[in-house]
Amino acid sequence: MLPHPTPGASNGARRLAIALSSTDMSNDSSVGRLAGALRERAAALQPGDQLPSSRAIVSRYGVSPVTVGRALARLGAEGTVVTEPGRGTFVASRRAPLEDVAWQTVALGDARVDTTHLRRLLEVPGPGKLVLSSGYLADDLQPTRFLATATARAARRPGAWGRVPPTGLPELRAAFAATIGVDAGDVTVVAGGQSGLSAAFRALSPPRMPVLLEAPTYMGAVSAAQAADLRPVPVPTDVDGLRPDLLAEAFARTGAGLVYTQPTFANPTGTVLAAHRRQEVLDVVRAAGAFLVEDDWARHLVIDGVAPPPLLRDDRDGHVVYLTSLTKPVAPSLRVGALVARGPAADRLAAVRRAEDLFISRLLQEVAVELFGSPAWPRHLTALRAALRERRDTLVAGIRRDLPGVTVTPVPAGGLHVWVRLPPGVDDVELADRAARRDVVVEPGRPYFVAEPPAPHLRLTYAAATPADLTEATRRLAGELP
Ligand SMILES: Cc1ncc(COP(=O)(O)O)c(C=O)c1O
């Protein structure tokens, strides 16, 4: 039993209560801290002992019931406690560790998919960090109030919890089609960009074939290619995007039937495929009889001018398979995106999608329909553009002020990231580690290259931190550069 705090623990409990009360009571870090404190308490008890009631935890730690519920759920999920409705929460019996799992190593064979870097990118940094490493908008840039209203409205729609055709809700396919400029019949709704990429790689190439990827490229594309049993082969880019001459050579050498590219505000470089290269790239792809997967994740993240039209619009023969997602301009958990394909490729994609997860949650699709139909959507995009401009400019000014020898290559006209080249000889991975020790979270450039990187780089995200944090971050980074 744990009816009262021990004298030793009460100081800790008091300190924790102060820390928790200075934050939003149900935010992720409060939940994490409370879960940590309760985990310690559980470790000091015996299996079957009861933890204090939720009400007692609320008053002892000064947190909300929601925070307590989420912390206990977290401990339940990890097997530390068991909650019995109507009785209380008890320390779980400690499971004996597995005795010998070495046989699995033999049974599993090679680890084909390396998601080490992707996993790090997906980690949610703790409180107090200056976050310049994220693929998504900072919380304060996400239209959360609108999403709450849209979700409530969507949940009340007739059939909102029912089934939906595997290709998606017709209204949503039509809404995506209108923004992309294609026929609704060519659109398949997917669960965000990653799921779309994964489906495209599986559907468009036989296994064990090479797939051409821009160098550098989004590391999630590399993982998705590996998961589809494809072999990633890099094709260099420059300030004008993918190089058509080297693309042609790579097709000829490898016999690949698929290339993945981000023509608009590429992650990580921010480059846009130059107007004079668009037709050349399409000609090379057509001559190779190949597919081109166009990942248009940043279309709604334009800062300067207007984004060029999707390459898809210049494709007459079904070579381009197009992908976009709402996770980037809205919020990471609005996991709704669209794949566009024409001809037999569309059927292949639909078949793979059906085999993978039947269909995408209708509720989320209904929320996306609400979003596209609301005057709040264009308002959000306008406000977002101004906020991203302020943050990008603050970061670029900070780099130029605090980090001599570091080159911005080039200043991106959209997207979420700035790609910087470090002075020769600087180890980008070590630099990122040193920065992390000063609570600045940045991405080293190396994982964005499938082969040897030509120079050390960092990817600095301006969308995930406030302007004040961006300024402080470059100041701290200056102390880590030679
Ligand atoms: C270029 C690019 N494509 C696709 C994705 C996948 O995004 P999501 O699955 O969250 O839509 C990401 C995420 O970082 C990305 O950077």
Automatic annotation (TrEMBL):
Residue ranges occupied by any HTH gntR-type domain in the UniProt entry: 24-94
KW Transcription (keyword) present: yes
Domain of life: Bacteria
InterPro entries in the record: Aminotransferase_I/II_large, HTH_trans_reg/aminotransferase, PyrdxlP-dep_Trfase, PyrdxlP-dep_Trfase_major, PyrdxlP-dep_Trfase_small, Tscrpt_reg_HTH_GntR, WH-like_DNA-bd_sf, WH_DNA-bd_sf
PROSITE patterns assigned to the protein according to its UniProt record, in alphabetical order: HTH_GNTR
UniProtKB keywords: DNA-binding, Pyridoxal phosphate, Transcription, Transcription regulation
Record-linked SUPFAM superfamilies: PLP-dependent transferases (SSF53383), Winged helix' DNA-binding domain (SSF46785)
Keyword set includes Transcription regulation: yes
Pfam families: Aminotran_1_2, GntR
Listed GO MF terms: DNA binding; DNA-binding transcription factor activity; pyridoxal phosphate binding
Similarity field: In the C-terminal section; belongs to the class-I pyridoxal-phosphate-dependent aminotransferase family.
PANTHER family: HTH-TYPE TRANSCRIPTIONAL REGULATORY PROTEIN GABR (PTHR46577:SF1)
Name under which the protein is recorded: DNA-binding transcriptional MocR family regulator
